[in-house]
Amino acid sequence: MARVAFVSSSPPLTSIRNLRRHFSISAAVNPKIPEMPQLYHSSLEVIGGGSDRFLPPLKDSLAKSYNAFPLIGFNRHVETIYAAFFRSVPAVRLRRECLRTKDNGSVALDWVAGDDTNLPPESPVLILLPGLTGGSQDSYVRHMLLRAQSKKWRCVVFNSRGCGDSPVTTPQFYSASFLGDIGEVIGYVGDKFPKANLYAAGWSLGGNILVNYLGQESHNCSLSAAVSLCNPFDLVIADEDFHKGFNNVYDKALSRSLRRIFSKHSLLFEDIGREFNIPMVANADTVRDFDEGLTRVSFGFKSVDEYYSKSSSSKSIKNVRIPLLCIQAANDPIAPDRGIPRDDIKANPNCMLIVTPRGGHLGWVAGEEAPNGAPWTDSVVMEFLQYVESRETINGERFFEDVHQIQA
Fold this sequence. Notes:
By secondary structure, this protein is an alpha/beta fold. It has helices at residues 16-28, 51-54, 59-62, 76-86, 115-118, 139-150, 180-192, 205-216, 235-242, 247-264, 278-282, 287-298, 304-310, 342-347, 377-391, 403-407; strands spanning 45-47, 94-100, 106-112, 125-129, 154-159, 198-203, 223-229, 324-329, 351-356, 393-394, 397-398. It folds into 2 domains: 16-234 and 314-407, Alpha/Beta hydrolase fold, catalytic domain (Rossmann fold, 3-Layer(aba) Sandwich); 235-311, no CATH class. The strands form 2 sheets. A 9-stranded mixed sheet has the order 1-9-8-7-6-4-5-3-2, sandwiched between helices. Helix 10 (247-264) packs across helix 12 (287-298). This is Embryogenesis-associated protein EMB8.
């Protein structure tokens, strides 16, 4: 199979080619090696233990100043709202497949129609994880679908339980730390395309779930690389900021979306008992209320604060063992900059972080397609993924060895 886990035991370094790779990677983590010349514009923050490997192929995209679109990008809330309501929603024909999970739940996989006949079985597969209450209908998801499709990648959107009109067949939705569904989806897609390398990209809560999966399943992860965008990382910090000032608008909007999903399936929760507070859920004014009444109980947490603390992907990123690109906006109102685990990203030779000075949440209204086209991040994401795909195997050998394994 072309898809290779990064955690298998490394063979003896006997060939010249393996020796070269060994010394190259060792140099990447040797603090005595001089720093590389700056390959990105000063308006961006670029750090991470994997920067020496992943930054050079992105130098063209990152060499220019990040210029937010005038009148829109000057304010993080204006940019966030503009992107949510006025960004174009590309027409993409999708084919839905409902996957029944081991616990009798259901998730919806939306594949780009026609890919089965137009693409060879070894084409790389990109799994997309939208944010909280998001799905394949969202503009940022649709733009990424088009971008990947134009590069001959196979794409599928993973709609979590209840999201994107995904069916709900048990009295349980999903959470920031529940990895059962993502694990089954990745396994199913891998079995469906055994000759292809698998990749994933997640936004916001989808990014948090993805990074949690990469860290907690590091020794069993079959993805070749991943991208996390506007990840809240530290959910305790994100929750603190969610109740401040204008952020209350987002809180009410998201809780309204959660209530709408719940109301469609409320009969499943009739007479459920235990610690569930169904009236609180049905009338939740905040995401925290919804999580207190339903989510934290469903997944066995004693309190909503324990749920947020133990579900934060900032605790998992140090264990990531595949190439991971994280892209954040310094002024993101929902994924606070101070919650980014910079020290762990710097210490992990498989990770790289790009922080733009502006961008809001799911915004990034900048670049050639601004203001109504694709986010600035799309081209960077695909360049990173294409680079890893081009280097994934050379003559049947892995190019990107797990640096954790080599150091050990």
